[in-house]
Amino acid sequence: MNQAIRGKTAIVGIGSAGIGEAHGFSPIELLGQASLKAIADAGLKLSDIDGVFAATSSHAFPTLSVCEYLGIKPKFVDGTNVGGSSFEMHLLQATLALEAGLCNAALICYGSNQRTAGGRLVSMSEPQWHETFYKPRHPITSYSLAASRHMYQYGTTREQLAEVAVSARKWANLNPEAFARGPLSIDDVMASRMVSDPLTSADCCLVTDGGGACVLVRADRARDLPNEPVYFLGAAGAQWHRSVVCMPDLTVTAASESGPRAMDMAGVTHADVDLVMLYDAFTINTILFLEDLGFCPKGEGGRFVQDGRIAPGGALAVNTNGGGLSCVHPGMYGMFLIIEAVTQIRRQAGERQLGKCDIALLHGNGGTLSSQVTAFLGSAAAL
Questions:
Q1: Which distant-in-sequence residues (6+ apart) come within 8 Å of 365 by Cβ?
Q2: What would the mean pLDDT of 203-214 be, rounded to a whole number?
Q3: Which residues form the Thiolase C-terminal domain (predicted)?
């Protein structure tokens, strides 16, 4: 059990900007607004930031662009981009850098204006030579293949996929910042426009704008800052393929590897987890990740989510902000998993606040079920 860095760093500031529609703002401006909010929330100054971790879908050299825009001359940077899971990976990398003394205050940040820039839900994250002949729509076609295989192999139904979207919407209806609110039934999901069989438009994540950021420092410093520290407990990443045609099994993701390693580092069991934040780009994601992370046996995910089990008041709190399906999804969603987990652990989530939230599992996904990164955050009570 490798717990050498467990509890050594903490998130002390979070910020978001332009959630939903942010007309007139560029990706770097939304990133900058969120970053300044996170730094202020931490009780720090911009000049205190000496480590920058960024991944964007609009900059080839994200840390160069971010640091120039914000006017930071950092001691350490990392621009690792493994898709939407990058920010969970950045939690681990920032912790390592802080513990090694390479920086003293680390900013993790992201921004996108995908919605108001007219972006569609498409991705170039696949090596196109594998699939171009078949004219797929990336990334939806790849996820629909996984959903179809799961339905064929385990008897998962479209109604069970719809349960995921309905549960997410129920959480979103408790979140005033969520972009999509209002009633949504299983029948509504089933009747919505078919995009890539078996996934309808309501099975697919939103296309929104949004910027997000968080600030980490070493644990000893965190105790002297204004907010209750939210401690890094552990993280691990795994990747088995890039193109979905190279995925070993369409029903098993590398979360089955990253999850146990992260859980081992964090020193927690499933029973300890109060909040599960999953990258729900599509309804099948939630089902696959609940299985692969060990909350239910393989093939049981569809039945597991039935009857409001992951909705407000259910047995397992999943995606309490409304997720990528109903809250926010500006191209890369992983940053917003962190923001919601911190909000819940700080007990600042308003109407959707969980009664107990000391340990949160965050799981990021990149590419087409390609990059999987699991992380754990916790309150002081979790140490």
A1: 83, 84, 85, 253, 255, 279, 281, 285, 289, 334, 371, 372
A2: 97
A3: 237-378
